[in-house]
Amino acid sequence: MKRILIDTDVILDFFFDRKPFSDNAAKVLSLCESREIKGFITSVIISNVYYLLRQTSTHEKVIEKLMQLVTITEVLTTDKGVIIKALNSSFKDFEDALQNYSAELNGQIDVIVSRNIKDFSNSSLGIMTPENYLKTLSVSR
Description:
Layout: E1 2-6, H1 8-15, H2 22-33, E2 37-42, H3 43-54, H4 59-72, E3 73-76, H5 80-87, H6 94-106, E4 111-113, E5 126-128, H7 130-140
Parallel strand pairs: 1-2, 1-4, 2-3, 4-5
Helix pairs in contact: 1-2, 1-3, 3-4, 5-6
């Protein structure tokens, strides 16, 4: 089973139905729901998604969406070691550094799925767009 970290932008593409990206985001999340792949997120992603969804919806509706998300994904650990690595890293975006090092700490993540590939150029993990990730799955089937 493939194990992926799903970046914030992919989740927001789905929840905000940002075309043309939302279709691939929906496919990735659907694969998580059907357990064909194992999707991971971080608490930072949950917090950021909550904040952004809350701008356009009620607390109750946002909580309902986040509950659905955590039902089909696993949440990676972000501990002090991850934070120190992120603070000392050459990542330009601190949030991306936190996500990256949380995935690295897990030790079993195959790839980070993000539309912002360049933001993860310092990662030791594989980085793919949702579109390219889905293409690799269809080739391996």
